[in-house]
Write a structure and sequence with these properties.
By secondary structure, this protein is an alpha+beta fold. The chain is built from 16 helices and nine strands. The strands form three sheets. A four-stranded antiparallel sheet has the order 1-2-3-4, covered by helices on one side. A three-stranded antiparallel sheet has the order 5-6-7.
Length: 402
């Protein structure tokens, strides 16, 4: 049998663990650190066992939990509905598992996974919902108040994690609505707190757009004296303007050398609108061939220094730009290469649909999107070669002035 000291000393692990007390009762130690008393029982006339949550340690003590567990088993054998039963003079009946916040979160996560959301979206959903477990894991979802949701959001805002705070609130709102659809709660308290949260205007991540400055940046990248893979990554960022994860986690199997294409699978793209095909210019293809001589023996284009099973860090490219004096909050970041291309390609008179497709932007207008399903591969191939040539022209102009 368990002792209070054993329960107190139990440390959380990566997976939930059970501390068995006897007669069907145990303590579930969750990865969040929560310690929940639970008991298994068999109701009268039923073959299969059920589990009932008694409460959370240390608010509920071991002796009282044992008393409640015995009461649960007695009532179950008598055919009494446990949801309406009195389990003790000074204890309130805990919520059924289906009413627990954690249960509803896990069910919603499983539902979204079954929906086929991208792995990156799934990881973000799971991570941000589980941030709330330390506050609400064993709470009845119907009892959670708006002020308690706001407390979680404000804690993140105080740490200046504004985007995370916004996403956590949105994900909590989705769980409340998921539960309400199943009559587990009546309201969505996360939806009413928006008036009390910090509103920040969305600002585009800075990117150089002036042709002369763009030429200077590309010259600086060509002369970069850091790691050769980092230099290749920055050059490909200029020629292909991919998002950070799309570039860094690139695999050699994604390159079609003969057809001059880089096909980035949907799992590594933003959104859920299919694979992203990048036509490769002469210049981009040249960088890739040079890079292949360095890292072509492995799967990854940009393996981490200490493990060829992981790609380089998301700070690597921005750190290199910073060392060259470019990566600032107002001038240019790695993501800014996308603005560099978009601005100058539009000024160059290229078709807006081709530009947006190459940026892997999802069409917001559903009717227009239905008619713009075409890949425009031939046109985009021409545009991408023009873009690489344009960058070369800007470098030549800057070099001529020196």
């Amino acid at each position: 049998m368990l002792t209070e000291s054993q329960i107190k000393a139990a440390k959380p692990r990566t997976k939930a663990q059970r501390l068995t007390d006897g007669e069907g009762m145990y303590v579930e130690v969750r990865p969040t650190g929560k310690k929940i008393f639970r008991v298994t029982f068999r109701s009268r006339g039923e073959k299969h066992k059920k589990t009932h949550t008694l409460g959370e340690y240390p608010a509920l003590k071991l002796a009282k939990a044992r008393e409640m567990a015995r009461r649960v088993k007695h009532l179950a054998r008598s055919g009494v509905d446990l949801k309406r039963a009195d389990l003790g003079d000074d204890a309130q009946t805990p919520a059924a598992d289906s009413q627990l916040w954690e249960t509803n979160c896990e069910e919603f996560i499983a539902k979204r996974k079954a929906d086929g959301i991208s792995p990156l979206t799934f990881v973000k959903l799971e991570r941000n919902l589980r941030r709330t477990y330390q506050d609400f894991a064993a709470r009845d979802i119907a009892t959670i108040r708006p002020s308690e949701v706001l407390e979680i959001v404000r804690r993140l805002e105080a740490a200046e994690l504004f985007d995370t705070a916004k996403d956590v609130r949105q994900k909590m709102s989705q769980v409340f609505r998921f539960a309400a659809a199943q009559d587990r709660c009546l309201h969505d308290p996360a939806s009413v707190i928006t008036i009390a949260t910090v509103k920040r205007k969305h600002t585009k991540r800075p990117g150089l757009t002036d042709p002369k400055k763009v030429g200077g940046l590309l010259l600086a990248i060509h002369g970069y004296e850091g790691g050769p893979q980092t230099r290749a990554g920055l050059l490909l960022s200029g020629y292909c303007f991919l998002r950070s994860t799309e570039l860094r986690a690139g695999r050699w199997c994604e390159i079609d050398w003969e057809r001059r294409r880089w096909t980035i699978p949907e799992a590594r793209t933003k959104g859920d609108h299919g694979d992203h095909i990048v036509p490769l210019s002469d210049q981009a293809l040249g960088v890739l061939k040079w890079l292949h001589a360095l890292s072509g023996n492995g799967e990854l284009m940009f393996p981490a220094p200490r493990s060829d099973q992981k790609c380089i860090s998301d700070v690597t490219l921005n750190a290199a730009l910073r060392r060259m004096g470019y990566c600032t909050k107002t001038e240019h970041t790695h993501h800014g290469f996308r603005s560099t291309f978009s601005t100058n390609a539009n000024e160059g008179g290229w078709n807006r649909d081709w530009i947006e497709k190459q940026l892997s932007h999802e069409e917001r207008n559903e009717v227009r999107g239905a008619y713009n399903a075409a890949e425009y591969l031939e046109q985009r191939s021409e545009m991408m070669q023009w873009w690489a040539d344009w960058l070369g022209e800007q470098m030549a102009l800057v070099r001529a002035e020196k």
